[in-house]
Amino acid sequence: MKTLGIALSLLALLAACGSSSGSGENPLQSDVDCVRDNPLQACESSGDGEDGSDIGDGGTADPDGVPGALSENLAKFSFASDMRSVTVTINGLDSGSADAVYMRDDALTDALGIDDYIAYSLQEDSLDRFFMSLGSSSLDGSVAAAVVGSGAQFDTVYQGGTYARDGSYDPPGAGEDQQVTYSGDYAALTNLSTRDGTELLDPGTLPDGYDEFDLPGQPAMIRGAILLNVSFVDNEVNGQIFNRDIIDPRDTRTTERLNDVMLELAEIDQSGEFLGSAANAAGDSPTVSGSYGGIFGGKNASYVAGLTNLEWDGAGVLGAASGQAQEIGMFVLTQCGTPGAVAALCP
């Protein structure tokens, strides 16, 4: 991706990336008996005879994995059992080891301000690239999702995401409510970043002649709300992301409202996964384009986890002069009528 500087703060936009019910355990948690490069790839130690969608407790996973349009640079991801850290392999220089450990960042978690969504970060020293992750799982542990992104440095950012399910696909059957709504929170990372981020390590005073060194940046987060309408009769899903607020990394108390995103009609396949297109509302600006997708889990598909990969014109946002914004987002939603659903958004 190419950077776009903004006066004073050196905020930067980068134009293109270099880039049954659950067991109660987060399906993106690590387990010692399972080795996978992608959380939705088959475990080497599997062979339990499940249907190919169970990835918890060493089961097998959908061989197709998360679509590349959504996974981007992320190769491997797992939460620690206590949710205090995540282990990540991203196709970028986030650590000196193959698997980088990002620790829970309480300041960024508080700034995001979403219950049960956790922020993690890693910066090995003040001149190394700054990486972040956002993640969450459903109340029953049947589905989880996470995104990872870096701040700008050397004209490049890295972004990616994943979702996973523990258990097989269990949609509502005949005689049950098959026209349902899911509602909840949405969180995202962007390629809009600044050298003045609140969580960056202080580089101190650089030696003479190093004034033009490209110091690492901290990416801006987005929070919002999301609603999905789903027909398990027609096997279709669509929805909307709204109340999208981008959080200024220089002062996380400062936000700016962004326009809504329409999630266009998409087909749900036989494994309970979907992939569709996203766009701005007709006549709205700026123009938004991209993809969204996810996976249903839990009894009667009570939960859904998923990702977005969006592009939009970032001109003017947090002071940006111009440039294309890249947004990698995640959501973990509860079916309306199920404990944990956001009542205010449910019909």
UniProtKB/TrEMBL annotation:
Keyword hit for Ion transport: no
First and last residue of the signal peptide: 1-22
Domain of life the protein comes from: Bacteria
Annotated region described as Disordered, given as residue ranges: 39-66
InterPro entries: OMP/PagP_B-barrel (IPR011250)
S-adenosyl-L-methionine in keyword set: no
Protein keywords: Signal
Protein's recorded name: Thymidylate synthase
